[in-house]
Amino acid sequence: MKSKEICCIGAGYVGGPTMAVIAYNCPKYNITVVDSNKSRINQWNGPVENLPIYEPGLKEIISDVRDKNLVFSDKIEESIKKADIIFIAVNTPTKTDGKGRGMAADLTNVKKCAELIAKSSSSDKIIVEKSTAPVGTGEKIKTVLKSINSKNKFQVVSNPEFLAEGTAINDLMNPDRVLIGGEESREGFEAVNTIANIYKQWLPNNKIILTNLWSSELSKLASNAFLAQRISSINSLSALCEKTGAKINEVSKSVGMDSRIGSKFLQSSVGFGGSCFKKDILNLVYLCQYFNLPEVAEYWHNVLKINEYQKERFFDKIHKSLKDIKQPTVSLLGWAFKKNTNDSRESASIDIAKKLLENNYSVNVYDPMVNDKTIIDDLNNLSVLNLEKLNIFSTVEEAVQNSHAICILTEWDEFQSLDYTFLSKLMQEAILFLDGRNIIQKDRVAKIFENTQSIDT
Ligand code: UDX
Ligand code: ADP
């Protein structure tokens, strides 16, 4: 059977788990995952307890398939050459300079992959766009491939990733749908079907949607925009709840029980984070501006504005409550952008810590999975001032010692069972408790902390 050699460029949060699950379900396919970051590849090849990303269930699958039909390698050209199908799963950060700065996605990594594929290939290949990328990326990949290599035929297919971090393995094993978009030609149709055949190894046909390149690319942005919009909608109402005495969790529950609306993604928070939502909505806004649709651009941009507003509100609340304290210390519990991941990209914790440090607060941080270097890098990347006032601890008790406020910023399970009576004794007076993720029963905490507040009250 043909098309059984797969190469995936990018061994990150998308490439790693996706290829692990494909390898697990498709024993007849040989998969090589490559990355320009050699130490990352070494980590993937090292002990499963120390994989570069934390994802529940991942280490079990890696133990099962690694060095059987899944290989991690730094020999990029060699792997490209022998592959029939190449997934591009590299990161596409937001541009930091030039046209579209702060908005458009930086496609440098994707373009580099396309160039390398074109140069290293001596046979026809299917190129699968897996990275979160703006609409039109597939066309750009095609242009790069054609301009460098006219001997081989390349079909570019969009197969956006819908996995959410923290639940990636389950999302990949049991996805709501798999989307595959290709060129509207006979060759394009064949390429789409070749990719569909991979997923058919463990998924029924009705879960696999076949479409064209643009629809596939836009559907990914649209899904993330809708999800983020729900969070911003509920977060905007949490501000109104604080003014009126309504309870956001009650509103959320009631709204979510309407089966037309549904209950998911209605949890009010200190703001959404992660590598996708902000970037995808910025891409959508940029696309609408490009096509001269200012009203549509503004509509979606407001989803991001509410997210920033929510973080500002959270900080203002701390600032107002602790304004009379001479040398205030705030403990931030949770740095990851959500539970069950060691990823902190765009985490609300980063912005809250930045605002606190720049207003002369001492900041104590504890997170069970994010390492110290990542926390410091996250702040350095934003050129945050007063970093000497940041302290990172390896237990909650240490992080809370002598502080004036506890802020829960990630909904880690271990924070749900904390002994607040004990913790309050470790703290200084003027105790403040802010539950940015609405995970603790308010009544339980209110009995312990005199000055209990939360984002929704
Ligand atoms: C998201 C999409 O869910 C996924 O389909 C896509 O492939 C990538 O982007 P991810 O960013 O990994 O996944 O996490 P997600 O579970 O969507 O959470 C994003 C952020 O929203 C987190 O910070 C989370 O805490 C926050 N959130 C989520 C809320 O604030 N409230 C909610 O009700 C749900
Ligand atoms: P994502 O969440 O999109 O998977 P990550 O940053 O976790 O993003 O992973 C992307 C991976 O892609 C990184 O390990 C990075 O080193 C790798 N990468 C980026 N550009 C290239 C490239 N041109 N060639 C090979 N690997 C690349």
Describe this structure in words.
By secondary structure, this protein is an alpha/beta fold. It folds into two domains: 4-213, NAD(P)-binding Rossmann-like Domain (Rossmann fold, 3-Layer(aba) Sandwich), CATH 3.40.50.720; 322-454, NAD(P)-binding Rossmann-like Domain (Rossmann fold, 3-Layer(aba) Sandwich), CATH 3.40.50.720. It contains 17 helices and 14 strands. The chain has helices at residues 15-25, 38-45, 58-65, 76-82, 108-120, 137-148, 168-173, 186-199, 213-244, 248-256, 277-290, 294-321, 348-358, 372-380, 396-400, 420-426, 442-448; strands at residues 5-9, 30-34, 70-73, 85-88, 125-129, 154-158, 178-182, 208-212, 329-333, 362-366, 390-393, 405-408, 432-435, 451-452. The strands form three sheets. It has a six-stranded parallel beta sheet with strand order 3-2-1-4-5-6, with helices on both faces. Strand 9 (329-333), helix 13 and strand 10 (362-366) form a beta-alpha-beta unit. The chain is globular and about 75 Å long. The chain starts with a strand and ends in a 5-residue tail after the last strand. Bound molecules: uridine-5'-diphosphate-xylopyranose and adenosine-5'-diphosphate (ADP). The site of adenosine-5'-diphosphate has 19 residues, from helix 5. The site of uridine-5'-diphosphate-xylopyranose has 19 residues, from helix 9.
